[in-house]
Design a protein that fits this description.
Length: 666
Amino acid sequence: MTKFAEIAVALPIDKLFQYRIPEALCGSLRIGSRVFVPFGPRTIVGYAVGLSDAPEVKEVRDLKGIIDKEPILTDEMLALTKWISENYFCTWGEAIEAVIPAGIKKGKEAIGSKIKVPEIKPEDLSRSEPHVLTKEQADALKEIVEYIDKGRHRTFLLHGITASGKTEVYLQAIDIVLARGRQAIMLVPEIALTPQTIERFVSRFGHRVAVIHSHLTPAKRFLEWKKIKEGRADIVVGARSAVFSPMSRLGLIIIDEEHETSYKQDDVPRYHAREVAEERARINQCPLILGSATPSLESFYKAKNGRYTLIKLTKRIEERLLPKVKIVDMRMELETRKKIAIFSKVLLDAIDKAVRAGKQSIIFLNRRGFSTFINCKKCGLVLKCRRCDAVMVYHFDEKKLICHYCNYRQDPPDICPKCRSGYIRYFGLGTEKVESELAHAFPRIRIARMDSDTTVKKGSHDRILTKFKAGETDMLVGTQMIAKGLDFPQVTLVGVVSADSTLNLPDFRASERTFNLLTQVGGRAGRGEDGGEVIVQTYTPGHYAILSAAKHDYEKFYDEEITSRKELFFPPFVDLVKVVVRARNEEYARKTAEDLAEALRAEDREAMVAGPAPAPMARVRGYYRYNVLLKGTDRAAMCALVKKVLTVFHRPHGILIAVDVDPISM
């Protein structure tokens, strides 16, 4: 009779703990169940990951109780979470915790809800029928179905230009998977989880769809999870964490807009949903489809080298033309006009034309707020947050200066706090300022703004888009929230106010982000009968990211960017591990980061260790931050090296160390 259980706990202690199974519980404990265990003076929740007959240490404490009659974790989930712990610098218990619904993490078996969450009901929607596929779509589907039928794993990169009908390929592939008695997971970026996306799936597949995203209450999320676990849902549509849906007959995983940064988890375990999906598809021997008009460089590189199968959709549905793109050189505007203008004459004329034709416009700027910074013309002072190195942004609605990193707020000064002069001026612009200037220039049009300030309240995101779709607003001004996944046939104009805001970030992915945003936001135009136009305002009109986006030429951008990545030895040629050392005292942070970098080099002479260097945003919420960067081709080996060094590394009091594998920003 087995007498001992191997237990993983969700703490940053990288080992399993052994507990004796009391006689009364001996026949009841199964691998994959949650248990109550004594841990120091406390009782905590642990996860049974193994059983053994002999004790490993003298003093073995008893299990206190078994929470689940049926295991909550399958063998597949245990294998997947083990892989996450080895590849994303976390413990097995921390990885397991990520797959359990938040509502039952503290040992609850169920969670009730009195709150009614509005949901899209299939009976409220007219059922949508499969469309007749174009030749390109049909060929794409045929390639994917071959692997569905074989029951074999393969990753497909579906590179389709905007409005080329990728979603219909997904829907019909899912239909075939269901017909074979299997299930599907469809991941979309959090930002694109609009009713529009969910409606497409619910109207096609009805009650077989479960939806998982961060705006659900813990109770509602648990109910959806339970519905999936009990086999009452065969399709899951959701954001990042939906990749862990407890499906027993998984036959297909799809990741739409696979280049999106929201697929990377910010806190422990800092996994990337794309990599986890690939591992899960491999375990289940099923296909994975990665779809995008602007694939990540990593994915396109793998497709070029045969690790993925590349499928292209080069034409828009109904042979609609891609929108015409005009690049406006704002340096010329500066020469021909007395003061710095927010809008070029070209953009103002185009808005006027769209208004007269009764059409809708989208104006994009990747910066919220009214004025980007407050500056003293006499001494040059720029007002910064007292806890971060971030510039304070002026918000006109609240008449406040706000830090976008820690939310610190203060009243704007009338005189300069440094030189006491009255030469304080507001510079730069955000979405709020753009909205106010447009309302001034076009007093008769109805404008809505969409950024993280206007979408704080529950349901506001959906309300703004529903009104725009119904034609109750003429223009949508917004940040990257409006750049992708939206389909509005009446939009004939997209204006990009400043294409340079993402280009000048101190990050090796800055050009890629700029190209992606411009291509995606441009793709919102011309989805109806009337065609469309995109106007891009920039001070760097010759940059390859801007020129390639204007020509809708992904391959040209890829060729330029991949050359520079190879020279600088950045992904996709290597994996990165970023170790961030934080402290309230800058000298402490710098010295500890130097000692840590030295310890890593001493442990492995071959390892490529760069730094330490101050983080691009060197101070956030009162903490100074230094980065140590490891580069290499074996992610698990780099994780093992960092784990080994940190186990024995002397960490002074007040020092915090975080490890991010394959970071998406520096």
